[in-house]
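Section 3.1: Structural characterization of target chains.
Under the original work plan, the team committed to producing a structural model for every single-chain target entering the pipeline before any wet-lab resources were allocated. The record below documents one such target. The sequence was received from the expression subgroup and is listed exactly as submitted; it comprises 387 residues.
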Amino acid sequence: MKKQWAHYLFIGLILAILAGCSSRPTDRGQQYKDGLLTQPFGLVNEPNAKGRPVNAKDYADQVIETQYAAAGLYSRNSGNFDAVKRWAMAGADTRQLSRFGVKAYQMEGVDNYGNVQFTGYYTPVIQARYTPQGEFRYPLYRMPPKGRNRLPDRAAINAGALDGRNLAIAYSNSLMDNFMMEVQGSGYVDYGDGRPLTFFGYGGKNGHPYRSIGKILIDRGEVAREDMSMQAIRQWASRHSEAEVRQLLEENPSYVFFRPVPFAPVKGASAVPLVAKASVASDRSLIPAGTTLLAEVPLLDNAGKFTGKYEMRLMVALDVGGAIKGQHFDIYQGIGAEAGHAAGYYNHYGRVWILKGAQDGNPIFTGGSQGLTTQASSGQVQVTYDN
């Protein structure tokens, strides 16, 4: 009898394990296939990844941009850059990394099973005018001079608290476009006069706390958590009045100012021009600037759904973001609407290996493990993904 009960107990345990495995979500690319990982980074002889990087040329271009724009950063990582490029030119077989003096350290992911979070950011292009004209009535401001008093919050700024101080640098035709450019931290402005686009770089904040409007819409039950994206926020705005949109945006008192720079490329926090899908924003307490990543990135369809497929990419950590903490990367998607479409959907998971040349004496990460326990660019993507 005891043997029979033990048999039933064993079967029940197996069924429970199988049910637990089958219930794990995979709709955002969670792979759950590398077993329990107990360290932020684990040295592996050969990454168990399929395929080869699809963007070796883009990676080489990003390294060249780093060499010309940030000599010190390049010199600290040049040996590693050269070793990875030699490996890529020789066919980029992950089983051959050690032959080129490259070690691969797998990241444990947000769940300790190797699933690293990926979000996306981009550089928007918005239409604007130098002065208010018809529908172009929503100002973008430069940073006010620093004073003793705290700067006004978003609601006060929208109500005209900065008017008359000669701080407006453009007037757009969309309050939501302005806000989305704040989310990304920078953008290009087309003044509509035939001149080249003007780059609006990040110029500072008003110092008020940030609140995610994405989370607010989720909490209200107006957008399902699994459907949240920048596109979902824009769709919500298209169905509501200007007053309702403004009221939602003012739930976030934080406000971003801009600095116009003619003829400027898009640069990250490392002052290096960014190459689309070959650069990421990272948590600097965990991943130093100049770190090379080999990433298995989930592929999405045009509706933002995970296709079940991945592609390998080589990328360099060159940017930062207030929402990017721990085992989380923000992938730079490029400039314009198409890049914005891709960036808006990304909140998915893949695997990442840190590549380091044997001659690279830099630490694997610059801080302690505290970066792994804080909440999860450049883009302040937390507006979209505060789950």
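The chain has nine helices and 14 strands.
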